[in-house]
């Protein structure tokens, strides 16, 4: 009888062990599946990156405004975005960081880091949290927002905004051209310490809206010198040569703007005709949805008197 019982007990032990292994494998598989559900694969410029499906603590060394437009929670941000008056209220709890502040970044416990491809320490940042780098200017202003949408698992939201914005901006452009004339020119000029800048159609300050979306015309000299380069620097003596029928004056509050009291400025036709519309440089140097919506409203009110 004992000879029969011993083999049976041995078989039972093997059976229980097998069941236990199966159960453990099942638990591990479920855990892996749950883990997969918490991440998505983002196809970055340098290859696929596993990122949180719903990131909770984002460090944005670049593209922070795009993240804020999709209500991403930023815990670390670059100093330029932090100084922008459009984003002050949205960044009250964020720390200013750079790619060199590795210890500080580590302390902030990010679950996603967004950086520029030109930045240092990308490998070290990747050891702290999943890191995605973008090359400035590789995507246009609308495609960039869609990419941030993909990264934050909000692609549809970003895509819907792009389509809606394009439609509204184009309609506003039709109204403005009907109001000021199809051949009326618009230039975007910014003040510096001892120089001025005039911009092409993709250098923020509302240029994407005015020239790309609204299809307004730039003066021939601006088109010649700034369209391809994006920006052209000149001195105050030649200001009239770059001023269109309408001027968007990007006023930098940190520089000397006394030139507006000079005859050179006062004798520009756009100035004489009250066709100069002033924007704040600090609030206009990005091309994210928050900035674009603000400037779209401003341009509609300025050109159409709404």
From TrEMBL:
Residues 57-306 form the Fe/B12 periplasmic-binding domain. Pfam families: Peripla_BP_2. Keywords: Signal, Transport. Its main location: other. CDD domains: FeuA. Residues 1-17 form the signal peptide. It comes from the Bacteria. GO terms for cellular component: outer membrane-bounded periplasmic space. GO terms for biological process: iron coordination entity transport. It is found in: Cell envelope. InterPro entries: ABC_transptr_periplasmic_BD, Bact_iron-sidero_bind. Belongs to the bacterial solute-binding protein 8 family. This is Iron(3+)-hydroxamate-binding protein FhuD.
């Amino acid at each position: 009888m004992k000879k029969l019982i011993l083999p049976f007990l041995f078989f039972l032990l093997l059976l229980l062990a097998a069941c236990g292994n199966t159960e453990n494998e099942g638990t591990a598989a479920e855990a892996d599946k749950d883990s997969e559900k918490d991440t998505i694969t983002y196809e970055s410029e340098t290859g696929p990156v596993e990122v949180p499906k719903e990131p909770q603590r984002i460090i944005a060394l670049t593209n922070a405004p795009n993240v804020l437009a999709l209500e991403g929670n930023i815990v670390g941000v670059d100093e330029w975005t932090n100084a922008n008056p459009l984003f002050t209220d949205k960044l009250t709890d964020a720390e200013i960081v750079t790619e060199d502040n590795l210890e500080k970044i580590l302390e902030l416990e990010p679950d996603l880091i967004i950086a520029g491809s030109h930045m240092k320490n990308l490998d070290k940042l990747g050891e702290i949290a999943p890191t995605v780098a973008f090359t400035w200017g590789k995507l246009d202003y609308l495609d960039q927002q869609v990419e941030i949408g993909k990264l934050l698992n909000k692609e549809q939201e970003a895509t819907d905004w792009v389509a809606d914005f394009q439609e509204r901006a184009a309609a506003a452009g039709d109204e403005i051209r009907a109001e000021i004339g199809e051949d009326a020119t618009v230039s975007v000029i910014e003040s510096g310490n001892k120089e001025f800048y005039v911009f092409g159609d993709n250098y923020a300050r509302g240029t994407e809206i005015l020239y790309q979306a609204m299809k307004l015309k730039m003066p021939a000299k601006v088109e010649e010198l700034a369209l391809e380069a994006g920006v052209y620097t000149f001195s105050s003596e030649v200001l009239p040569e770059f001023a269109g029928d309408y001027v968007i004056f990007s006023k930098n509050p940190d520089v000397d703007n006394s030139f507006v009291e000079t005859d050179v400025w006062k004798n520009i036709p756009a100035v004489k005709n009250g066709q100069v519309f002033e924007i704040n440089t600090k609030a206009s140097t990005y091309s994210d949805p928050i900035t674009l919506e603000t400037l779209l409203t401003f341009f509609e009110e300025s050109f159409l008197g709404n």
